[in-house]
Design brief:
The chain is mainly beta. Helix content is 0%, strand content 36%. An 8-stranded parallel sheet has the order 1-3-6-9-11-13-15-17, with no helix packed on it. It has an 8-stranded parallel sheet with strand order 2-5-8-10-12-14-16-18, with no helix packed on it. The chain has a two-stranded parallel sheet with strand order 4-7. The relative contact order is 0.11.
């Protein structure tokens, strides 16, 4: 596939600790890349996404700070078997974390707060996705906390989705998902978990 890169070239393997990718068109972009480790990066105030993986698999994103970007904090786009952990994805214009058309990813121990300055405004958004795990995340003060849209066989467990403006957790056109031991209180519309 053709890479529409933001910062740097497409590379098949690599490790990226301690980068500051701020104030660019986009922060960090992996295209058709596998077995990368992105750790302790700061990606903020970019015109597009902070970190974007496209057709990339078996990558680990940990302890990154993706804040105040004009797109999403972190996007997995047709990317499988990745892990996002211990990262902060706050104050982005769209989603804190978006998983699109991606399978078998693990999203664990992240913070997605106050992603409420634009048109989508979700803490974590999964669409056209299956078999992902969202565990132990704090997803608060967004318009929606966690939203699944045409998504199946995902596990949503032990997340704090409290104090979002509309819904704590919303499932739209989604089936066979497991929701276990989540907190979804104090939503502005009074609906913790909403099934469409």
């Amino acid at each position: 596939p053709t890479c529409r890169g933001r910062v740097g070239p497409c590379s098949p393997h690599g490790t990226g600790p301690w980068n500051n990718a701020s104030g660019n068109e986009g922060g960090i972009y992996l295209c058709s890349s596998s077995n990368n480790t992105l750790t302790y990066n700061i990606v903020k105030s970019n015109n597009d996404d902070g970190i974007h993986l496209w057709h990339s698999s078996n990558n680990t994103l940990s302890d990154n700070i993706a804040i105040s970007n004009n797109g999403n904090g972190v996007t997995l786009d047709w990317s499988h078997h990745n892990k996002i952990k211990n990262s902060t994805c706050n104050l982005n214009k769209w989603q804190g974390i978006e998983i699109y058309g991606s399978l078998n990813n693990v999203i664990i121990n992240n913070r997605a707060l106050k992603n409420d300055n634009g048109v989508y405004e979700r803490g974590v958004y999964l669409t056209l996705t299956d078999n992902n795990k969202l565990i132990n995340n704090t997803v608060s003060h967004n318009r929606y906390g966690i939203e699944l849209d045409v998504a199946s066989n995902n596990i949503i467990a032990n997340n704090d989705c409290s104090s979002n403006t509309w819904y704590g957790i919303r499932l739209y056109n989604s089936w066979d998902n497991i929701l276990n031991n989540n907190v979804a209180s104090n939503s502005g519309m009074g609906i913790g978990i909403h099934l469409d």
